[in-house]
Amino acid sequence: MAKFSMLNFIRTQRAKPPPVEQVDLTGKTVIVIGANAGLGFETTKHFASMNPGRLILACRSESKGNAALERIKAETGCKTAELWIVDLTEFASVRRFADRFEQEGGRLDILVANAAVMLGKYEETKDKWDTCLQVNCLAMPLLSLLLLPHMVRTGSQYSTVPRIVVVASDVHYWASIEKRVLETPNVLTTLGSKEYCTPNVMGDKRYFLTKMLNILFVRALNDRIEASTPLVVNAVNPGYCYSNIRQSFSGAQAVVDYLMEKSVALPTEAGSRQLVWAAIGDNSSPNKFRGEYITLWRKVDEVSDYILTPEGGKLQDRIWNELIEILGKVDPRVSSTIETYLRPGPN
């Protein structure tokens, strides 16, 4: 498609990134998921230089999280950063994180939902889901919805507009869902099952699909947030960056990725500037980012043609309804959040 041609991809990758956005975060609380490495670390480091009232590094590994925390403190002088553990491969861990925030979190101004995995084969979580689907498309929405009430209250109490930033990707333009999946009673359950996750449907295509599902989540959630509610949710494309997310590649796939990195990959820090922009850019008019897809560089762009079709709209609402049913069984607070803070979706 013209709006995502290979030529445009190369041009944007090679364009000079704008400087990182800077604002004063005094008194504000920021959470970055997956803050110990890659885009998450670089994004957290940028926030650490803006005098945040509280900066929470949400990491799976305590040892890696502590190493990142100490490095950020040493390199930025930030004294308000702290490590909280959350493992997105376990719903119970997400619930514990939310429980802790209810007890001691207070206000919440920015949530950067950055964690994602790219696996070439089916790996089952303790919750009996495919790891890639659970981490990228179930646990991330679960945490976002459990923290959403804190963000709405923060907006009302402090006359501000908190933001949920979901890290997506331009690879969503290449994603699709097979007809045989759409014909099943529950799309997400099918996509997360061992029976469906054969080697033919895993790998790159699986990751592409999860990024499309991320955008569907952002758009569906935004459709259900009243215009008067002080909360913005958006999706952001950081570009093709040097990243350890592709460390599982092997053989020809690894060779191709190596050559692409050498020719067009962005430094990880440059990609993180996109995440920062999605979280604090145009602070005087944050509502312009409601439900939007932000791509290189600081540009609000259209999502894939498929998502914009009537068929894509129906899928978006179907996925939302299935997601809420699944997550409501994981934690009843999800259902309470939907009833209290969101409006019904479009018919």
TrEMBL record:
Keywords: Oxidoreductase. Gene3D superfamilies: NAD(P)-binding Rossmann-like Domain. It comes from the Eukaryota. GO terms for molecular function: oxidoreductase activity. Signal peptide: none annotated. Coiled coil: none annotated. It holds the Pfam family adh_short. This is NAD(P)-binding protein.
